[in-house]
Amino acid sequence: MYDFEFVKPSTVADAVAALADEDAMALGGGQTLIPTMKQRLASPSKLVSLAGIADLQGVTTGGGSVSVGGATTHATVAAEAGAYPALAALAGDIGDPAVRNRGTIGGSVANNDPSADYPAAALASGATIRTDRREIAADDFFQGMFETALEDGEIITAVDFPIPEAANYQKFKQPASRFALVGVMVAKYPDGVRVAVTGASENGVFRWKEAETALTKDFRTDALMDLDINPLNMISDLHGTGEYRAHLVKVLTKRAVATC
Amino acid sequence: MPTVSMTVNGKTVSGEVEGRTLLSQFLREGLSLTGTHIGCDTAQCGACTVHVDGVAVKSCNMLALEADGAEVRTIEGMANPDGSLGVIQAAFQEHHGLQCGFCTPGMVMAAADLLAANSAPSEAEIRAHLDGNICRCTGYHNIVKSIQAAAAQLG
Predict the structure, then answer these.
(1) Quick one: closest CA in B to A2, which residue?
(2) Is the ipTM of this complex over 0.85?
(3) Which residue of chain B comes nearest to A8, CA vs CA?
(4) How much is the pTM?
(5) How confident is chain A (260 residues) per 10-residue block, as mean pLDDT?
């Protein structure tokens, strides 16, 4: 890892100012960024830790939604997002316990790893990603593998999750990395069902709209019987072929519906 | 160079570090607390697990400067004040919870983290909590037994 300057501001405004430097990067819990820097795949000149900003911490529930501060750890979400049990369960199964004590929602969502869990939760919930300068709908936020709508130096201050009537996240873990080989989040809202898939597509997290339409009409696993998902743009690697991942998408969607 | 200060096993310590100095490196090389092991250096194996402000973290995946002002506890802080083994350590010895011992500091710190939150964990809960701690010798059975025994003793 190349050396860098480390700063830990206590306000969002100071963090935004610190990130204005060329080659500065925001640091959440570092559970992805530090390993990436060790491999010299990232070499920021300055790291701006967001861990000292009180405004970015914690889970608040009200008005039919759960709002998670951008620097809130997975362990805290698992413990405090009880108003949205599927979200708490998802957070409580990311990585391992020590990783959950450091990793943050803002870091996960901003990185948009194609196998990360939180992007599926945000997209299936129709979440709103709030930043230091605007609000972005999850549908507009995730723009492909490791790509998001965030501008340089833009900080995620919170993610607001509308609480569904029922929801479930099913993850088929890649046992070495503990990332999702495929993960499917199903969330049922009064105006329809949303299905978000992580781990499977070359384009990162996506909504399986055919399944959403079928499940909005009839919220039973049988509604998915005749549906299949095209394996063409699925990730194919040593852990599984595109066809295998496409198969898992359907199986996990059914399991999620059955568990709702 | 920046200076970092923290409390490690009850003692206030400080030292000069680089931005990139890892907490594991500061503990081992700066403070000579070599009980914290570095196994994979990729946050997979858990040998470097320590407690920061009361919760388990992988010290190879945290910067020393991120721990500035924190309370850190390492395996060296798990023994009794007279130097004899603490309850969890003694349980690992009694129940053969280790063979080569390389993963053991991380296992003990993970176990202490679990027992602080859950004084009577089930076998499944113990195994789930050790998800991020890898042992290549024991097959985990005796580690689980050790933690169950420690839980019973600590009540």
Answers:
(1) B20
(2) yes
(3) B66
(4) 0.96
(5) 97 98 96 96 97 98 97 98 98 96 98 96 98 98 97 97 98 88 98 97 96 98 94 94 97 97
